[in-house]
Inverse folding.
């Protein structure tokens, strides 16, 4: 939860005069989002989300993220539509920050999505991959396998209260993952962070995919593996094969998996678990005690990684 | 800015099933409010604000605040309407906190309201006082002159960087204010915290008065004095008599001031400045460094107090 930048009402009026979006009716900072400041803005015509990009976001990469949202929304994916001002510009400056306005999407995120919602996510993820195929910009995944090794190397000692051999054990597991990492699978623009909090539903109907700020060029099946990690575990830490079956089935209605993608699923899931274990471990160590956003426990993904290691075949994920 | 309590989506669904308010379309914690957690909730029918009352709020006093909102909204004041559930109840429990839902009001607050907006505020403040006259519940002002003395007495040393004689000087000024404090002026239910951030406008039209959690029984003209302090100073710290003239004129269209209220205006303004100086000073000293909500500078109200001390007559506020 975060609103890092306060916006003065006079500065806001001046900013909104750039757009043809009607009369401002309400404006409120919202507690969603970790990296940026987000505001819900209502006019007599529509609802919008205004985002101010905070320090952790690389301004040079914004045209990629915004371009991808533009491309996918125009192609029919339910995602935010970037709003152009009277001059046709999307990226602006407001209160000393890069800023952009996008359409508001109905829906709320589900902490523990049900199988129907997992199926809908699978369908939408396939649609994302199919529709992004002719998106021309590209961005390297800044959190791929090479970066995991560097990330782990940057950590000297495990945080207090975590197992002493955690780093050595992680290094072993990481070597095994990197050694088996597939490099000839179908790839393209992926979301790369499609956790439940980034997907909106009204009832079981999926109404939106948000937060494109980790999107990059990588393996399609890796994107699926990120979703299997974040959507298909129950609150007690166990893997829910009913949900994974539904998610993969939904995905295959749009984009059937190739044989080598299916064969690689377990290692891709291990890699995805490793990625979130490592970034959470890093944030756990480096987040100041007084930060607005509290770090997430890395051990959740350590447990998931161990479950994926035991998956001997695609059947473990519900593929028969 | 604050959202202290996270609400699980399953708990929210269960909570909303108590109401007849349509299908949930979106739900977001908002950064407004210091004392409580506030969420903007949209259904296919309406927009609502859901408030979770945090620890600083005395649960026993909630029926007064909610009753006052009910009374005033029913009488025609533009303020939130408390929403009853299917059983006719307003106060609920959610995520371990007392909770209530109210109607959402259009409008945004103005950091530096213009004279037209000050006039509109005056009109609405008079309406508040007239309409609350037959509200039967009552609540003592927990931050009246007696409490100021106790508050000042609880502070041992001025915060670092503030004048060394600040506390002694404040004690002198406070004695003078208490000695001159009027006790026979018209009184009733007042808002007691009607700062610009608690009043909403669309353009210059006042669309709502919010945040009733300091409301209490006290002098009507003291409520006006709080507004003169918070609405009629410019960003450079100077008193803007054009704004105060407009505010008082607006007020008198609804409720003409009595002669002894006019005579007491300067001392009531000094008292109001003292009240916010002291609570800010207290918060400045007692807010932990890692708090979500940063304390406001008390010296802003010290300067205002000095300006009111120089006001020799009602003319200083624009009353001729």
């Amino acid at each position: 939860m975060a609103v890092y930048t306060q916006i003065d009402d006079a500065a806001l009026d001046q900013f909104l005069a750039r757009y043809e979006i009607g009369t401002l009716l309400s404006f409120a900072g919202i507690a969603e989002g970790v990296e940026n400041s987000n505001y819900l803005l209502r006019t007599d015509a529509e609802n919008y989300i205004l985002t101010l990009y905070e320090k952790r976001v690389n301004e040079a990469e914004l045209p990629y993220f915004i371009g991808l949202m533009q491309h996918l929304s125009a192609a029919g994916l339910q995602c935010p539509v970037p709003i152009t001002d009277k001059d046709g510009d999307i990226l602006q400056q407001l209160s000393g920050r890069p800023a952009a306005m996008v359409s508001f999407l109905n829906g709320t995120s589900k902490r523990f999505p049900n199988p129907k919602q997992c199926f809908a996510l699978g369908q939408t993820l396939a649609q994302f991959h199919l529709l992004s195929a002719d998106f021309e910009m590209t961005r390297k995944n800044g959190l791929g396998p090479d970066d995991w090794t560097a990330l782990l190397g940057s950590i000297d000692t495990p945080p207090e209260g975590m197992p002493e051999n955690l780093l050595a054990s992680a290094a072993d597991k990481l070597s095994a993952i990197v050694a088996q990492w597939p490099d000839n699978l179908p790839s393209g623009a992926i979301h790369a962070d499609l956790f439940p909090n980034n997907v909106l539903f009204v009832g079981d109907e999926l109404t939106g995919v948000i937060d494109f700020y980790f999107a990059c060029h990588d393996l399609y099946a890796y994107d699926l593996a990120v979703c299997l990690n974040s959507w298909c575990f129950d609150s007690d830490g166990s893997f829910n094969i009913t949900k994974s079956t539904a998610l993969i089935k939904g995905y295959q209605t749009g984009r059937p998996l190739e044989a080598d993608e299916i064969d690689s699923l377990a290692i891709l899931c291990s890699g995805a678990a490793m990625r979130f274990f490592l970034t959470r471990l890093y944030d756990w160590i480096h987040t100041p005690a007084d930060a607005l956003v509290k770090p997430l426990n890395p051990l959740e993904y350590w447990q998931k990684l161990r479950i994926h290691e035991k998956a001997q075949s695609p059947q473990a994920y519900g593929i028969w």
